[in-house]
Amino acid sequence: MSNLNRGVAKVEVTLKWDPSPLGAAPHDLDLVAATYTSEGAGAAPDYLVHFDSRSPDGTITLDRQSRTGQGFGSDEEMTLELERLAPRYTRVVVGVVIQQRDGRRTFADITGPAVRVLEGYTELAEHDFSAVAGATAATFAEFTRDASGAWRFRTVLRGFDTDPQSFGSVMGDLA
């Protein structure tokens, strides 16, 4: 008997923000995806996709990356082909981290940050980060594989006060 509940298959994540004011250092936000083989708290991600990279098997790709927020539409775009992920992967967490090169910046310091999670034309989630305005990084999406092998989505907006180098190691914490 086949399973008619297909779950989430292929997702696009888009991130945008407004450029910093004229004469100010540019704001640089980055999408980050972490894959996990265990759902246990504190488990390290198997790999991270960020900063112009892709997963080793090509199932998660950063398709567009900006360092300034300039331009029309989305500044960063990531595609997650969950249905192609190897069966050993049970969880994927997606977040945003603010680069801290020119001093500490939080989401409150960034004008117009917004992220969308889409499956085809269906919007699964949208966030403006106002609920985590004092954070320097945040997770906003979690995908988990159920017993049938189908992927489930839940929105998980959680702020972190961490630097880009450390975000990957804490973004999957179950707190």
From TrEMBL:
Residue ranges of domain TerD in the record: 4-162
PANTHER family xrefs: CAMP-BINDING PROTEIN 1-RELATED, GENERAL STRESS PROTEIN 16U
Family membership noted in the UniProt record: Belongs to the CAPAB/TerDEXZ family.
Name this polypeptide is given: TerD family protein
Species this chain originates from: Streptomyces hebeiensis
Lineage: Bacteria, Bacillati, Actinomycetota, Actinomycetes, Kitasatosporales
